[in-house]
Amino acid sequence: MRAVRRFTVRASLPESLAGLGALATNLRWTWHPPTRDLFASMDAELFNAIRDPLRMLTALPPERLSELAVDEDFLRRTREAAADLERYLTEPRWYQRRTDEGLPGAVAYFSMEFGVTEALPNYSGGLGVLAGDHLKAASDLGVPMIGAGLLYRSGYFRQALSLDGWQVEHYPVIDPNAFPLELVTDGGRPVLVEVAMPGGRELRAQIWRARVGRIPLLLLDSDIEDNDEDLRPVTDRLYGGDADHRIRQEILAGIGGFRAVRKFCELTGHPQPLVFHTNEGHAGFLGLERAREIIQADGLAFDEALPAVRAGTVFTTHTPVSAGIDRFPVDLVQRYFTDGRLVPDVDPRRVLALGAEDNPGLFNMAHMGLRLAQRANGVSQLHGRVTRRMFSRLWPGFDEDEVPISSITNGVHGPTWVARELSALLGGNHDEFGHEGRTPGSSLRDGVTDEQLWGLRRELREKLVGEVRRRVRAAWVQRGASALELGWTDRVFDPDVLTVGFARRVPTYKRLTLMLRDPDRLRALLLDERRPIQIVIGGKSHPADDNGKQLIQQIVRFVDDPAVRHRIVFLPDYDMSMARYLYRGCDVWLNNPVRPLEACGTSGMKSALNGGLNLSIRDGWWEECYDGSNGWAIPTADGITDPLRRDDLEAAALYDLLGQQIAPLYYDNDAAGVPSGWLSMVWHTLETLGPFVQASRMVREYVDSGYLPASRTVAAATGDGYRGALSLADYRTKLEVAWPRVRIFDSELLYDHAERLVVGTEVTVRARIDLAGLDPSEVDVQAVVGQVGDADELTETSTVPMRGDGIGAFAASLTLPRAGSVGYTVRVLPKHDLLASPAELARVVLA
């Protein structure tokens, strides 16, 4: 029989244990070992099996709860844990100790997925885990953030394998009441947000709140009886469905998410956010709702509201290729916006213009995100360069390095990912490496020997081996094998063998099967009698990506070979729980994408924090962090256009590194049985990469270069009756008329012809310019000097402001900065106090 309805009954706790409820429902326990220890002490075997305090309270027999309710030692520890949580939630932290004027009272962070813990399966991969780490680090730093997204009733899929190695998806049904969530209510009734749908209908969603330390995370859920049957499944699953389903999700995430944040703040007294951060373009429609709010509340026109909207928006893109951007058919977008009900008083034509791209039939969510945000960034230095190139068409006339998209390299939340044994050995909190947790001049190596570190690394590797054996056996049983024929799984892997990890999503560009380019060379490395290696692999392919599934099948067929299956494994159902074993137990973390298609790739950061060494293509974060002593860089076959040839060359380089450098160093033990050369690289990695790869560093950068300047610009734009925004709107209107008529008639370079031009010579650039009625204070006239190539293109440029005489003549003196072929030009740019970048308005007049 099947149930007609599913619901969850939570445990009724004795009054003396009431504090456990707050500890179980605040997800700080996911990165706070003492809280986990408290729950583990209730029933260690049960806790190790489910790793979820809330489920633990439901699963414990009532008689055990009754025992604990009168256990004075347990009650004391519960009180102490509850008091510690309360201190954490209320005490001033890094953000509160800052004295900068203009720090926002709240920041809203929007993402389509949040990977906070496997106990709340609302994520698929790196984007969601990054969002979860962002919230955790913001909580630790005291940044007043509110997260907003969707709650998926099926979560992300569970992965299994068929007998022939094909990925099989299973979508477990989620009851929100069974998770560490609470329904947002008002007067006992669920708070609903509504967004208009075509045909006069409404899509309604209730709001679930997760507590991520100090951060409220609001998740919208459309599976309610108030909705029509075809609207209830809008939040059914992550990244599923057709374009119509997808745009409904993104409308709900952006417009509905904004309305949910507003209602939550009104109900709870939480400060209303001034700054809105969109993690990818999925929630970009929120900018339209913010404009609608200003238009209706303050009587501004759309163009007058737009500067205030842009000032308070930070947009982060994770996409290094155009194909990865969400695009919708224009007629589909029109269907949702044309009747004017979704965002009243916002002209649908303006909506379409925000998402316009080269293909007039498509609406580009990233283009809308960039046009509605004054500050945008990629997620590594290399990705920033790639992104500026990818979107340079939106800023014609500007060099790629002037495109107003910066970079903030991703980070990972140390307390979530670092083995507690390692933190204990090193005598501190990994999250504070390089910050206030270390005294000046101190070293991680103080008081710790190589033997101790090597012993711990072996202990972590041994735990990984145990988990690998358990999961391999379970996977074979699931594929239909008999327990009687699985005795060999007890001999899979060896805690004394060099262990390489490779685990991530499986799109083709990540090249899961690069290691299989020469199967014989791989077998030789795995089975080497003196210096063997073992490889653990995990990863999921998108359900609609058959190419990715074929890559998984190729790997599975190779690892099924009895000759090698004790040295290489594929573990199905890669998630955060599995990831922790891999990051902590692997000696080497492998990453071999096609450069430059990896935006950042944070998995290697998590391995590095645990003393793992990276073996990676110089892509994403590794491009800026590899220093020759913290791992290895796989050479790239740049310039090779044949992808198969490129794969052959880079795979050969991978085999050479593993066999000729990595394995020999790993097995080169001293008299004490310790590979001192290897450990010197481990120590160097912990010391130098430790501070940089932290999410705390990342969030600090977002505060300093994103949230704080955005908040100040919002104040300037909205203060005194939106004086700044109105001024900028008037200025843009003036530019619309004048800019096409701005002309640079001529320019000249003046210097003493009696002297030779050498580095350091002072010269003068003059130009005659018609500003078409613009005041000189409304423009920035620049002389640009730099190296000049065969096509007269300027590179390595520097700019000098030119001063006008009031009648159209401008001049500047400059010192020649370099030898060789040097050139100059003159240009005119818009200038206004509320512009964050000279390129912001995508206007430039060149000589």
Automatic annotation (TrEMBL):
For the keyword Iron, the answer is no
Question: DUF3417 domain: from which residue to which, for each copy?
Answer: 13-120
Instruction: Supply the SUPFAM superfamilies for this chain.
Output: UDP-Glycosyltransferase/glycogen phosphorylase (SSF53756)
Pfam families of this UniProt entry? Answer: DUF3417 (PF11897), Phosphorylase (PF00343)
Could you say which residues form the signal peptide?
none
Q: Give the enzyme class.
A: transferase
One GO molecular-function entry: pyridoxal phosphate binding
- PROSITE patterns documented for this protein: PHOSPHORYLASE
- Protein name listed in UniProt: glycogen phosphorylase
